[in-house]
Specification:
Chain lengths: 385, 301
């Protein structure tokens, strides 16, 4: 087998395993392997790694493929994209015990929910998205982006604290026949933020499935740097499912490929997994929106530690609870009580459907920032409840 | 070997030796990645935890090749005028005033928009470099820059040219050796990754870290250096620590111990030098110092 065949076969295997290895990577790999071909085997592996594997978490793939080739098992990568390495221990549902302790539940009090030690993972046939509601939602999301902005955009405004802008200064001097009287200073306006949406799709959120799918879609359009995760007993990134323009394709992907619907909830465990895997990517330019009713079957202490860790990293945490819109709502579930001190805004799901509701929650609690400074204190809105 | 011949006769082993001569302890895979980047004339994107020596690689490479190091430090809001060029507006204004006073305003426009009034920023400087050996262009912490700038870099790294409307397109006389670094505070776009060779710089293993400390820090007993490395590794293994110490922190800490003439890693010594390795109060609180000291085999007091 020559270098070209070797690299072509390898790139095919990588592609089957979900890696983005294009023709340009294959060309680079051929060039790199031919440069180190006379050297050590380790150099050839490095050459392949630097040209084809641009995600360190996939480095072990190369060793696996080499081992499979050496043992003669072949056919590497044939549909073996697992569901991740997370443990599959049962999601213990204590909903029966928690039921009736506060928020306006959909279920009647006679309904008795037992917990199961076996994790229950389901796919779900989803309904098509309501285009009218999406249109309203898009308008609200645009407003929300401005409210939550923490990053300077491209536009600037005149400010005495800003930097001297020569173009404006010179243009201003035309009025005085080229004599510069005033130095114009400008400051970049804050118009961008990075969004991390964590959406609970466990059994207790079943009633709101249509809204959840709509929220996933809308949040993914918040900014180009939006990351959407869904969680129940595990957490999974679904940003890639939503990065297509065809609504039907999004519905199909979320129906056919997502199997976390209707399971129990372990918010603390899921947040911990998120922080372990992606914590280093989060900083104060990120805004986190958690959509959940707060029913948690995991350890409250783990939830507290995880949400505290998350809060230390990001600029704001907003919690959307579907029960929050109901009259007489009090955040009394264990999950809500634990998380509340770290939450900036606790709002209902209606904020994405009704502009007045959006203003009610976001208008009072959050003002757009004037400059990208450290936010003073947090949890003010939540503590005032 | 004359420096100009070094590029022609470059090999992985030679590069590895040269790196070590410059007190940079690299493993073979890093030397291979650098070798490929130079030979294939492709930018090398190095990602890794902060303080792992990513920036240092570019500095050392410039020293090895005896060439210029041009550094572009990325930050949020970095734009083309900070990265490529900007007109020297105050100088242009003064020049116009001078011409006005002399009464010779003919051809003023072509004069004020000439190279004389151009402020060259790092990228333009890199493509205008005229030495025998191409310069090393370090684009540091690209993850801090905005996506718009990343998009702009796609074109720059593909063509190595810059367009100034008033002057025209300037193409690189010789392609610089480009090293980009990222601390992974955000995911770098696929487009940029596709144009680069990629290397992930992880924390070194115990032996290599010890070797680095022995090379970089003098007057510290060997058994103390071993404890420093073991203690640092214990911290790195903790998932709840937000800012994990890198190599630079290890070196700083060992240097601090050398200055204090410490003979052993006692509790007091550790507490007085803790700020070298742990940079946030939250992380300090999380550490159980006594049990960690007993794990590395040090006396409690």
């Amino acid at each position: 087998m020559n270098i070209y065949e070797f690299v072509t076969d390898l790139s095919r295997v990588f592609r089957r395993r979900g890696l983005k290895v294009g023709v340009s990577e294959s060309i680079d790999a051929c060039g790199a392997v031919s440069l180190v071909a006379g050297g050590e085997f380790q150099d050839i592996l490095t050459a392949i790694r630097v040209t084809m594997l641009k995600d360190p978490s996939k480095y072990n793939l190369l060793e696996e493929v080499i081992q499979e080739a050496a043992s003669g098992t072949g056919g590497a990568g044939e549909g073996d994209e697992g569901t991740g390495s997370e443990e599959t221990q049962g999601g213990m549902q204590r909903q029966g015990a928690q039921q009736g302790r506060g928020q306006g539940q959909e279920k009647t009090s006679s309904q008795y929910v037992m917990y199961s030690p076996v994790e229950s993972l389901h796919k779900r046939a989803l309904r098509p998205m309501d285009v009218t509601k999406l249109r309203t939602g898009r308008r609200i999301i645009r407003r929300m982006k401005r409210r939550l902005a923490v990053l300077p955009g491209r536009r600037s405004r005149i400010s005495r604290r800003g930097e001297i802008e020569f173009r404006r200064t010179i243009r201003g001097s035309f009025k005085t026949f080229g004599e510069i009287i005033e130095l114009k200073k400008t400051l970049k306006t804050l118009s961008r933020a990075r969004l991390l949406a964590l959406i609970d799709i466990s059994g207790s959120m079943d009633t709101y499935t249509d809204w959840l799918v709509r929220a996933m879609y809308l949040f993914s359009r918040f900014t180009r740097r939006a990351e959407i995760f869904v969680f129940s007993t595990r957490i999974r990134r679904v940003t890639d499912y939503l990065l297509v323009t065809n609504l039907e394709e999004i519905r199909r992907r979320l129906s056919d490929e997502l199997d976390l619907w209707g399971s129990g909830t372990r918010i603390g465990h899921c947040l911990k997994t998120l922080l372990e895997n992606h914590g280093n990517l989060l900083d104060r330019t990120w805004v986190v929106i958690i959509v959940s009713d707060g029913w948690d079957t995991g350890e409250p202490e783990l939830l507290r530690e995880s949400i505290e860790g998350l809060r230390q990293r990001v600029s704001r945490i907003i919690w959307l609870n579907p029960h929050s819109d109901k009259p007489g709502f009090r955040p009394l579930t264990i999950g809500m009580l634990t998380a509340l001190p770290y939450v900036d805004i606790l709002a209902g799901t209606s904020v994405l459907e009704d502009y007045h509701s959006f203003l009610t929650f976001f208008g009072k609690s959050i003002k757009p920032m004037k400059k990208p400074s450290r936010l003073a204190g947090y949890g003010v809105a939540a503590r005032s409840l | 070997m004359p420096k100009s011949e070094l590029l022609d006769n470059l090999s992985i082993d030679l590069l590895l030796n040269k790196l070590e001569e410059q007190l940079y302890v690299a493993d073979r895979s890093l030397a291979t990645a650098l070798y490929l980047a130079i030979k294939m004339k492709k930018p090398l994107l190095i990602e890794g935890e902060p303080g792992c020596g990513k920036t240092e690689i570019a500095k050392v490479l410039a020293k090895i090749l005896d060439t210029e190091l041009i550094r572009l430090q990325c930050y949020e809001g970095l734009d083309v005028s900070d990265a490529i060029y900007e007109w020297n507006y105050p100088k242009q204004l003064l020049y116009i005033r001078l011409l006005e006073s002399q009464g010779s305003m003919k051809d003023v426009e072509s004069e004020i928009f000439s190279e004389k009034f151009l402020l060259k920023r790092p990228l333009l400087e890199a493509i205008l470099s005229e030495g025998d050996i191409p310069p090393v262009l370090l684009i540091d912490e690209i993850d801090r820059a905005d996506e718009e700038f990343e998009g702009f870099l796609l074109e720059f790294l593909a063509e190595f040219q810059a367009t100034i409307p008033e002057i025209g397109t300037i193409t690189a006389k010789q392609q610089p050796i480009v090293i980009l670094t990222s601390n992974r505070t955000r995911e770098i776009g696929d487009g940029l990754k596709r144009r680069c060779l990629y290397y992930y710089q992880s924390y070194p293993n115990r032996e290599r870290e010890l070797k680095i400390l022995r090379l970089k820090v003098k007057n510290v007993p060997d058994h103390l250096l071993e404890k420093v490395v073991d203690f640092i590794n214990l911290i790195r293994q903790r998932p709840d620590i937000m800012k994990k110490p890198g190599i630079s922190e290890s070196i700083d800490w060992a240097n601090a111990l050398a200055r204090l003439s410490a003979k052993d890693l006692t509790r007091d010594v550790l507490l007085s030098t803790m700020s070298c390795i742990i940079k946030t109060q939250e992380d300090i609180v999380k550490l159980d110092i006594d049990s960690m000291l007993s794990m590395v085999g040090s006396r409690g007091t």
